[in-house]
Amino acid sequence: MAEPLLSIRDLCVDYVTADGPVRALDRVSLDVMPGETLGIAGESGSGKSTLAQALIRVLPPPAVITGGSVVFDGLDVLALDEQGLRDLRWKRIAMVFQSSMDALNPVITVGEQLTDTLSAHGAGQQGRERAGELLELVGIPAERLTAFAHQLSGGMRQRVGIALALALEPSLVILDEPTTALDVIVERDILAEIRNLQRARGFAAVFITHDIGRMLQFSDRVAIFYAGRLVEVGPARTLADEPRHPYTRGLINAFPSVHGDMRKAASIPGSPPSLRTPPPGCRFHPRCPHAMEVCSQRQPELVQIGPRHAAACHLLISGESA
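Structure (tokenized):
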């Protein structure tokens, strides 16, 4: 078994408020293997983007990492100083941010943004020629180097964001909602482009999205988050066919089927809890159709239920089935 490229253990992130800390990530443990795509899904507020930003330590105030460890290729990320972080970011771990329009500088051309990124990390001698190669790598003609962000379509801006992330050939690329607000055809094309680039260059990817259907197609393994906690993780095909946590099953059932037998999509009743005052025990129990008394009393731990497949549910611990 290969060693993980990225190893996260008991990671905790709090948002410091006047009324006390709000726990946004609660003892999250995950691995990312070399060359694989790990999908991360969950409703808004589940901790997906907080995790992504914590991995490269770009969390905005008042967020604070309060516990745990993040080890990347043998390097203790949480112990790095500013120079160490500068050497890590973009050279070894890069990120495609949620909103491509907000992530790109609106007052300089995309070519300048690419050459600035190369120059900031000691690769400036490659200059404009390398910037043109990066654009063509993601399907944009090199002559668009002179374009500003507002002169590009949403899909092209997203591709520029991907080109920026790949500029220094990192080992891990974090894709935080990379196709938000794009139509389904452009979304499909961009995800196919990312997959082709991944095969050609061998980098690992963390793919964060609300769309569990798309994520199951695109990822090798999937991690499901709910209210700041990891509730299930396993191979994408396994979770698609045999989800074991009621929340994972609810997410999958909330998307209509486009293959096989037709079925009606069913929403999960209720809303995610406030992280300021989360319910005791399993945080999903107020919405769970299979909740038992123990669910409101004790937090379930992740239980190994198959090869690289684990879920945190008292149904599994008790031997009952949902």
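The longest strand covers residues 20-32. The mean pLDDT is 90.
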